[in-house]
Specification:
Length: 425
Amino acid sequence: MNIEMENSNKMDATWWDAFIDQTNHLHDTTVIKDCLDSSETSAMRRNIMEIIADLAKLRTNKYGYRVYIEGRQLENNEMLRVYDCPPIKNENLDDWVSRAFGNQKFGIIINQGERFNLQLSQSIAKKLKPLLDKMGMPTEGIIFTLFIGNYDNTPLGIHLDSPGKSVMHFHLGPGSKKMYTWNTQKYEELVGEEKHNNQNIQRYLPYASEYAFDEGDIYFMPEDTYHVGTQSGLSIAIACWLNNRSNFDFALRLQSLFSEQYLKQSKDNLKFDANTIDDITALDTTLRLFEMPPHLEQLSFKDLMKEIYRDLRYSLNSNGGFRTSPFPKTDSAYFKAEDKIQLVKPFKILYRQSLVDSKLYVFVRGIRFELNNYDCLIPFLDAINNGEVWGVDALLDILDKDWDSNVGVYILSLLYKNHGILKVG
């Protein structure tokens, strides 16, 4: 289904009401026409070329960075040819592709796209905010994958994405694209054991539904849908994945988050346990690796998981729904009284009190840090969150008059380092 909606380039609350209706409450595959104007798609394409250039400097494929040439994924050592030929500032997309790949068909996939380019993630967060206000937060947040290339078919073939991931595909052009989808039951009956990453695309196209879209369109696809993309010419796209996995997978994710937050690394090997069978004191050295605040140690396992989930909720909401935080700034900002700062919109600096009220947990772009819980801190953060331009001197006046000004400057530097605020002027 292709839909043209009024005022599409606004993507405001009314626009998203129509989107929710047209997609049957995010259950039906749909193409929404003319959602982004040409200035937006052009700017986003430039942002993505900057990401490719940044990854070339890092010389890494750590972040799900994959390159395919003529349908074959490049090995680690082969990636050098891509790292050594990054886009140059202000270079035209076609010129870079010609220089880097010549006449070869290529495809690039980059995961965690939300963390690399601040301007791009901010643009997408602004567009998605009214939808999240209406629908709530995907349980595990939003990640976006970048697709760049002139390949004939998606290199993965006909495939199924990870369970529970619906997608909003912002098509940035300049080339057009078609997506083919299959009814899950019918497709699996047709294909049998070769259903995953099926490269025999032409054979099964007669059984598929076809969706065509162009530069500036959004293609929405619900979770658990077999699909493959085809195109003629060069195009770039941002696939925003809305993550709602099974209860079981999410339970494992919560345990993983607990380990990431509280389990200390150790390479010490254990020894034979020569104690009697009911003597489990040998475990004590292992348990000491769990460095938790005392008040969390008193919780039952399920209550502890609730606290982990609460932190996850605050992290996601402080980061516009994105699961991955941007890299922290490497430069240190020292704020003078005459400086002016402002919140980075549409993000919010969130906070909550710890269970024992001795700490205030502050969440900035998905990063949590702790402050001693003084009464003046909440009005200080609320003032920043109103989005106005603030003089540093006026903000410091909100804090306790007995405090050294360096305390407030230190808090501002934490917010700045994690992209919560910016200097104005």
